[in-house]
Amino acid sequence: MRLSADVLSMSEQRTNPLGERELVLRGLAIPAIEHLAATRDLFDAIDFADNRIIRLENFPRLLRLGSLFVSGNLLESIDAKNLVTNVPNLKNLVLTDNRISGLHEVTNIATACPKLEHLTLYRNPVTRRQHYRLYAIHKLPNLKVLDFVKVKQVERDRATRLAMSAAGAALEGDVKLEAREAAKNNKDHHKNTFNPGEGKSAQESFVTNFTPEQKAIIRDMIANATSPAEIERIEASVKKGIFPGVVRNDTITENGVNKKTTITGDGDKDKDEIKEKDEIKEKQKRKKNSTADEGLSPAKRTRSQTNSK
């Protein structure tokens, strides 16, 4: 489900246990952060847990925002420039159970959140990297709690010694190399690839690829969708220029089991499938009438056949 102004206005708003005014956007299958300007900077905390966010980016100016909960997503990277510019007062960042794997992302977090006091990267691949904890403590001098464990002065001293050692210099060189590779891969990933019928967005594809009748059907499908996953499937099909599947209410009886008929919107192929299914229904009807007529007398059978015609 896309994060629209309507979704934001209908989402739960509460005071969390820390006394913060919180906006709850948990479990909505949100793929990307957008339209947060509609919140008008009225919240101290935003809960993005259990969505499908891949990159922490696209924040508007939110000076009040101090806590961000993004656990249980698909998060791989952070846009440090965007966060440090627009969310400069972030102190609590929860990124539990994501896909952050490089120490260069720890550097990005440090750049993005200079006032950060509580950071959780528990159950991310990066936590298995050598010197991860000491590296994070060194990069975030204001950090008080890392992965639910209080940062002690002994660890700060060890982190400082590591940074000043030859091992620390080598580690920093590896991190810079990781950052360059990640930047290159990110650039390649965002190159435009041509796909016939596909638009830059679902809205663009909707405008250019469908007839007025199809547009009306798609609007009804979205309005009658029963889950966020169904809306997401419809939007994905529309973006590719493919008419999304329509579930009809009529059924086909096959071996005594009623099954819904689905039209996928692939043009002539669908018409052939519908025609074939109609023929199957007609054959089944004839077979049923034939079986029923076997026990009738010749006179009644003739009368029955005349009525069926």
What do these coordinates show?
The protein has 309 residues and is an alpha/beta fold. It is built from eleven helices and twelve strands. The chain has helices spanning 5-10, 80-86, 103-112, 132-139, 153-164, 166-189, 202-209, 212-223, 228-239, 268-293, 298-308, and strands at residues 12-15, 21-24, 45-47, 55-56, 67-69, 77-78, 92-94, 118-120, 145-146, 149-150, 246-254, 257-263. The strands form three sheets. An eight-stranded mixed sheet has the order 1-2-3-5-7-8-9-10. A two-stranded parallel ribbon has the order 4-6. A two-stranded antiparallel ribbon has the order 11-12. A hairpin with a 2-residue loop joins strand 11 (246-254) and strand 12 (257-263). Helix 3 runs parallel beside helix 4 (132-139). Mean pLDDT is 82; it is low at 192-198 and 246-269.
Task: Produce the secondary structure layout.
Elements: H1 5-10, E1 12-15, E2 21-24, E3 45-47, E4 55-56, E5 67-69, E6 77-78, H2 80-86, E7 92-94, H3 103-112, E8 118-120, H4 132-139, E9 145-146, E10 149-150, H5 153-164, H6 166-189, H7 202-209, H8 212-223, H9 228-239, E11 246-254, E12 257-263, H10 268-293, H11 298-308
The percent range for strand residues is 5-15%
> What is the helix/strand order?
HEEEEEEHEHEHEEHHHHHEEHH
Radius of gyration: 29 Å
What's the average pLDDT?
A: 82
Q: What is the β-strand count?
A: 12
Number of helices: 11
Enumerate the spans where pLDDT stays under 50 for 5 or more consecutive residues: 192-198, 246-269
Structural class: alpha/beta
Main β sheet profile:
8 strands, mixed
Quick one: overall form?
elongated
Strand order of the largest sheet: 1-2-3-5-7-8-9-10
Distance between the termini: 52 Å
Fraction of helical residues: 40-55%
